[in-house]
Amino acid sequence: MATNGAGKTHTESQVYLSTRGGDQGLSFETVVLKGLAADGGLFLPHEIPRATEWQSWKDLSYPELAFQILSLYISRDEIPADDLKAMIERSYSTFRSKEVTPLVHLNDNLYLLELFHGPSYSFKDCALQFLGNLFEYFLARKNEGKEGKERHHLTVVGATSGDTGSAAIHGLRGKKDVTVAILHPKGRVSPIQEAQMTTCSDANVNNLAVKGTFDDCQDIVKALFSDPETNASLKLGAVNSINFSRILAQIVYYFYSYFSLARQSDFQVGDQVRFVVPTGNFGDVLAGYFAKRMGLPVDKLVIATNENDILDRFWKSGRYEKHKAQGAEAEGGLEVDGVKAHEDGVKETLSPAMDILVSSNFERLLWFLAHEFAAAVGMDEEFNRKQAGQEVAAWLKDLKVKGGFGPVYKDVLESARKSFESERVSDAQTIETIGAFYDKVGYVLDPHTAVGVTAALRSIDRAGSEVPHISLSTAHPAKFAGAVELALNGKEGFDFSKVLPQEFVELDKKEKRVTTVENDWKAVRELVKQQVERELQAGS
Ligand SMILES: Cc1ncc(COP(=O)(O)O)c(C=O)c1O
Ligand SMILES: N[C@@H](CCOP(=O)(O)O)C(=O)O
Predict the structure, then answer these.
(1) Is 402 a catalytic site residue?
(2) What is the predicted pLDDT for the residue at 345?
(3) Mind giving me the DSSP string for 287-315?
(4) Strand partners, 339
(5) In sequence order, what are the beta bridge partners of 155?
(6) Phi/psi of residue 276, each to 5°?
(7) Between the CA atoms of 430, 433, 434 and 436, what dihedral angle is there, to the nearest 10 degrees?
(8) What are all long-range contacts of 334-341, with beta carbons under 8 Å and residues at least 24 apart?
C-alpha cells in the first residue's frame, strides 16, 4: 500500500497511467470521470494485480465475485466497501437472469456465454449498468450541498455502432446532473438498435445520426475529448470502452463463466480453457487478457473478426493497417466477397456492431506489449513505462498520419501470439453457422455470436476437443432480424416472432427523437452545447 497525492491509500493496481506516457498516479475516480487522457492516450492501472486467491471465488454469486475483482482495482479509500457492494448489487439487479451471465452447453466441448440478459439485450449492459451507477455515485459526492451552476454537470458523449448506445441510455436515462449525447452512423445500425436508442423519451438523452461510419463517430468523440476548451466547459464523460471502468466490469464474466463451467461439467478448477470473442473495438477481449494476467488459466483468447479484419491481419502479419495491402482488396464501393466496400474502407456486414476499422482498445494491448519488450532490457520500472508510452505514441501517430504501422518487432508479435489467436469470418460463414446450430441444437445465434462460434469451431480443430471453449454470445438474436431471417427463414419450425422479446414488439411505432448531423466534430460540439444549455436552464 502507498499513499497518493490526495492522501489516499492504494496498491499499484489501484492507480492509473496513460498509454502515451502523459499521466501516472491518477485515482480511479479521475479516470472514470475523465475517460480519455489529456495526451490522447487510454488509462490503464500501473499494474495488473495477480489474484492469488482466485480459486476460492468458485462459489460466489455474480455480484460477490464482481466485488472481489473490482476491489483489486479500486482503493477502499475511494469507494468504501459497503458503497461498492451496494452499487454492484443495484447494477446486476436489472438483469433478467439470476445468474446474470448464464453459460449454455452448445455441443461437445463448446459452451456459449450468454451476455445479453441485461436491459438492452447486449453484453454492453454488464459494464454500462455499473458505469451509470458509478457516475451517479461520484456526482452525488461532488455535488453534495451545492446548488445551480456550482454543481458538476457531466456531459456524456458516446459513439456507437448500435449496442453501446442503447446500453448507455439504459444506464443513464433520467440521472441527475448528466446529459447524454449518443452518436451513431446514420443508416448503419439495425432497425431495432436504432429504435431502442431513438425512442427513449427522457429529456437528458439525445441521439445524433452522423453522416459517416462508426469510426467517424468515434473520431468525433475523441476530438471532443482532446479539445481542452470543450472538455473543460462541458465536463465530458465517456461511456465507450475508452473508459477503463468498462473493461474492469467485463473482467468479471470471464471468471464467472470459468467457475460456471466447473459447476456444470467435470471440468476442474485449475484446468485450461479457451475463450472466443467476437471483436470490434477490442474492449471485450482485452478484459479476457486482464483475467488471464490476473491468473485465470486461459490457454488462448481467440479474436473473431468479421470482414473488417484489421486485427486478424495484425496477428497474421504484424502490421496494423486500415487498408489492406495493394491488390488484396478492391476498395471504393466495389464488391469484395459479395460485400460492399466503402471508400472509407469499412465494409457493411451482417454483424454491423463490429463494422469497425480502428479498434481503440488495441492501444491498451500495445502498451502491455511495448512494456514487456522494454522490461526485457532489464532497466527499472520508470524506464519501462516511459519506453512503452513513447512506443505507443509513435505507433498511434503513424496510424493517424500514414494509416498504419508495422511490422512491429518480432518479439512484440510473438508475445501477442502467446496470448491470442485470431480468425476472420465472412458473412457467408456467419449465415452458415446460424443455420447449422439451429439445425443441430435448435439454438438461434445472433450474427456477432455466430462470428465467434465459427472461430471457435476452427480453434477446436487446432487445439483439440479436450480443451473446453467458451464462446461469448454478445447480443440477443432479435436485435438483428435481417441476418437471422436470412439464415433461418424457411427452416422447419422457425418463427422469428418467437425469439422477439415483448419490449421489441411495435418498438418502431413509437415516437423517435434523433438529429442528423454532418461528419464534423465542430458541428457536433455545437449541438451538444445547445443541448446542455437547454437542460441546465430547464433544471435551474
Ligand atoms: C454485439 C456485439 N458483439 C461484439 C462487439 C465487439 O466488442 P468489442 O468492441 O468489445 O470488441 C460489439 C461491439 O463492439 C457488439 O455490439
Ligand atoms: N460495438 C460497439 C462499438 C463501440 O464500442 P465500445 O465498446 O468502445 O463502446 C457498439 O455497439 O456501439
Answers:
(1) no
(2) 82
(3) HHHHHHHHT--EEEEEEEE-S--HHHHHH
(4) 336
(5) 179, 236
(6) -120, 130
(7) 160
(8) 336/307, 337/307, 337/426, 337/427, 337/428, 338/427, 338/428, 339/307, 339/426, 339/427
User: Bridge-partner residues for 44, per DSSP?
Assistant: 17
Tell me: the pLDDT tens digits for 254-291? 999 999 999 999 999 999 999 999 999 999 999 999 99
| Lookup result for grid cell 511490422 | 407
Per-residue pLDDT reduced to its tens digit, 314-341? 999 999 999 875 444 433 333 333 444 4
CA–CA distances in Å: residue 349 to residues 43, 50, 342, 499: 31, 39, 11, 22
From 124, 169, 360, mutation site for ligand 2 pocket: most ligand atoms within 8 A of C-beta: 124
User: What is the value of ipTM here, to two decimals?
Assistant: 0.99
State the Cα–Cα distance between residues 432 and 426, nearest whole angstrom.
10
Ranges under pLDDT 50 in the chain = 326-343, 540
Tell me which of 34, 124, 292, 479 is the catalytic residue: 124
Per-residue pLDDT at 335: 39
Going by alpha carbons, the residue nearest to atom 4 of ligand 2 is 160
Residue 27 neighbours by CB under 8 Å, 6+ apart: 4, 6, 8, 10, 15, 16, 75, 78
Are the beta carbons of 165 and 194 closer than 8 angstroms? no
Which atom, in ligand 2's list, is nearest to the CA of 242?
A: 8
Q: What is the pTM of this model?
A: 0.95
What percent of the chain is modeled with pLDDT above 90? 91
- Predicted pLDDT at 329: 45
Q: Bridge partners of 423? A: 304
